[in-house]
Amino acid sequence: MRNFTTGILTLAVVVLSLAILTTPEKRVEASSETYQQLNLFGDVFAKIREDYVEEVDDAELIEAAINGMLSSLDPHSSYLSPKNYEGMKVQTRGKFGGLGIEVTMENGLVKVVAPIDDTPAAEAGIQAGDYITHLDGEPVLGLTLSEAVERMRGLVDTDINLTIRRESEKAPLEITITRATITVQSVRGRIEDEDILYVRISSFTEQTDSGLRKTIKKLQEELEGDYQGLIIDLRNNPGGLLDQAIAVSDAFLRKGEIVSTRGREARDSQRYNATPDDVIDGKPIVVMINGGSASASEIVAGALQDHRRAVVLGTQSFGKGSVQTIVPLQGNGAMRMTTARYYTPSGVSIQAKGITPDIEVKQARLEVLENGRRRSEADLRNHLSDGTDTPDAKKDGDDKNGAQGQNQDYQLLRAKDLLKGVSLFAKKELN
Question: Which has the least CB within 10 A, 76, 121, 284, 310?
Answer without folding.
Answer: 76
